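Friendly challenge for the regulars: who can give me the structure tokens for this chain first? No prize, just bragging rights.
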Amino acid sequence: MADIDPKLLAGIKSVMEGKGASKDGRSDTTPEDGGAPAKGADASVAAPSTTAKDESEAFDTSAFYEKWAPRTEGLDRVFRLLSSKREDDFSGALIVEDDFHLKEFIDDLMDMLVGLGKLKSRKALRRVGITPLCQNVGSALVSGSSEEKNALDIGKLLIVDALGAFPPEGMPDTLVNSFISALSRIVDDRYILLVGTTAEVEGLIRSHKVLAPTFGENIVFLKGMDASGVLKEFMSNLEDDLKPQITDEFRARFKDFVEFNGDILAFKGAELADYLSKEANASGHLILPKDRHTSSSLDDMLDEIVGLENVKETIRGLEQYATFMKRAKGHGSTPPSGNLHMLFQGNPGTGKTMAGRLISRMLYKIGIVKSSKFIEASARDLIAKYVGNTNKMVYDKIQEALGGVLFIDEAYALMPQGEDSVGYGAEAIAELIKGMEDHKDDLIVIFAGYEKEMQGLVDANPGLASRIGYTFHFDDYSVEELLQIFRINVTKSGFSIG
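First reply, four minutes later:
Bragging rights claimed.
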């Protein structure tokens, strides 16, 4: 039997394994053909260019995930979409309260997209504010040219920021809506990432619901500089004569201040450290601003309330829990989400609305809710007179209260009573429960009314009962307490009792 050329054997084996062979029979993985250099060879020798498919097969996406998973929230879904070989487009949002890691994240994302062959090079990156982008697309739509040739780039990663400036002043609603429609489309080889604060991203998506199925489902929260990083930066900015004043007790107070108050401060990360160090350098001693909320301030507010001792005690328990949750999140922990929806039971005139307002203000100061909104509603604000309108009325009221507290007085009136209203009240309750679930991190609902009727409402709706975390019982005022309230009101009005 004649000997078979070893090169030919290598070529046949390569073809059988799907690797292919060169014209002279050499395997395309040999060093001679530009593959990995042999042991001891010069590693600086450049390999020949490969196709996007070859690059994507070789690129390891795990490094990106392992690096950024600890620094982000919500990355899993977005990572699966971006690294999938079958997905060739993306629409999502990146929430950044502090842009300390932003450039690094975008650089690594570009490396991954190029490595996977989804983008041709790192030059396929464009960063633009949403206002000029909208204006460019609007001009393209007016002139009749295609949006792809003008603003919403194909084959690029489009970073869209400055979301708070949208919509552009003076631009007709028709063009704004056309831009939003173009932005919401799923287009092959187009990668768009909205970048902004929580308020900017959520506000844009909430105002233009057509963005929710794409951008709203793919949101990543990028963590900024932690409290230890802010402290380190702060210390580096201090005058030398102040540094000896730094004690372990001050370090602990500093980090606690940043963790507890960070989300409401005007400055974040390195800017916050710079601001605090300037204040210290100017005053000549180490100082920190006041906390957003203190238990003593709550005690002062509660002391002004006559009676309701059991309600006050429940409010103090709520404050302790809310403060713990806030500090845990500020420290980087993820405690199980608590249920802060409430039930107020008591007769009219027993202080339910007053207590609701106080709780709303307290939760805002602690940082559990994003705004001090306290939206009052009754059954007639939630139940429509005509079929099909109730859901919208409830939905609109929930949207109005998002970020704050929705207080529903006489909520027991939502219970079906009689044949005419049998569907409407139940419909309103179902929509409320859905809203409480959909916005459990962005809305607190307080149901208030007579004790017996409110208990009946909860007992008749298990879905509602399971979402009530705190129940407050408001006792009737005694004669002495009513006299005390009367004297206080007289004094506040500028009169005196003879």
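Residues 309-330 form the longest helix (22 residues). Confidence is low (pLDDT under 50) at residues 1-56. Your move, everyone else.
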